[in-house]
Amino acid sequence: MTKLYPLKSTAKYMLIGVATLALSGCGDDPSGFDVSKQIGTDPVLPEADPSLLPSMKIAEVIGWSGEQKPTVPDGLTVTAYATDLANPRTVHTLPNGDVLVVQSKGPGLEAVSRPKDLVRGWLMSMAHGGGGKQKKSNLITLLRDTDRDGTVDESYDLLTDLNSPFGVAWADDTLYVAATDAILAYPYELGQTEIAAEPEVLTPLPGGPIDHHWTKDLALSPDGETLYASVGSNSNIVENGLEAEKGRAAIWQVDRRTGAARVYASGLRNPNGLSFNPESGELWTVVNERDELGPNLVPDYMTSVQDGAFYGWPWSYYGNHVDERVHPQRPDMVDKAIMPDYALSSHVAPLGMTFSQGSALPETYASGAFVGEHGSWNRSVFTGYKVIYIPFVNGEPAGMPQDVLTGFIEGDQAHGRPVGVGIDGTGALLVADDVGNTVWRVAAADGSVTSEPIGTDRMPAEYATDNGASPSAQNGNAATTDQRSEPSPSADERMTDQAPVEGSSAGGETLNPPQTEIAPTVLPRSND
Predict the structure, then answer these.
(1) Contact 440, 85 (CB under 8 A)
(2) Confidence (pTM)
């Protein structure tokens, strides 16, 4: 067996520089494309420009030093809420105001299917802060602000040694954690500072042996009965085969009490930031779209999520725009694809979203959504690397986004990269910065706070407090277990040719495996 030796530091960075320069000029758009035209409800989509080597520009991660911090507009102030973390990805506020910070690294199971993946993977590891000594990650830390003054007074590592966690939810003295391969249920009462009990597996999720998009986000329905989990694709455009995509590029609906699960919506390449809109009751998500069609395709987006809807991946993007690279072509699936609600521009990499209702921020941010944009790596000019606010009117996005937290990148160097966003127990905005290893707190400059905490997992009464919405008007409530036991084929099942064939053979056996034997449908847990 050939033994591989690590490159010495100087040689390594010389190679990185050569690779970056070589890739950054390939397939880029010299026309000065106006990025602002690709933001909103009707984005401009240029002609596809695939190339052998995609545009690539990687920011050197330098972190924050001394008194350095991001920048906020007038009316806001920013402070470091928690530092010296280990890749914080998401933040989640419990009903008592305690904040959970999920810190994680990927499982390292991504397949290398093309030679250029070797270069891309190496450079991407540097963009995520790789190369130096790394703290142990894959844990959940509880932060407590006892006097609600915006400063953390107590910190406890609640769970450790998890398998690449990302999303969390809490209901009925149970903490749900979305690891990369399962939703886990831990007994947990508010106020506890440790969890000693072993978890139950509520439902398995697609994990290895390939785990290209490993982050699995969670959202709890407003009635508290149903969990929604995001499961990203296992490739850019099915390079690992369609079989590897079973149950992926989708959002799952999971019965919180039984673990029964089904695909709720599909064709979403890498959805994250699952959040319920307090005004409309609809589930929303932000999605990372496909790469290697040029620097200005395809726009990442934010959208409401419709039950049974198909959003195009891999055969088309932004509705019926066909991706000619995918074979065999499926015009029948392209016809089913629906257009997202709001484009965020190409390659900004949105990974977090939260709605602003119930916050203590100025009136400018009273009704809308905050989005954490992790930032581009595959175009010659950096985009993203900031947190934006998108105003909503009547439950829908309206107008251009506003910058809320910037200054993560200077020149070709990145201090940090924003990921998850959330509202803390005082009504301030929290931002997880995974390579800066910090959670930032953005608050009203006048010191305003909410009268009491509002948890991330809002219940119907809290929705009614905000806008008078009735719980019965919420979309996406779980079907009963009986209804789910024989579901009609979802768009995802049709997409992967998994839909059961009606009828049976002469011997009484079904022509296709029963639905309960095919991912992602999962039977309820037994009571044994």
Answers:
(1) no
(2) 0.84
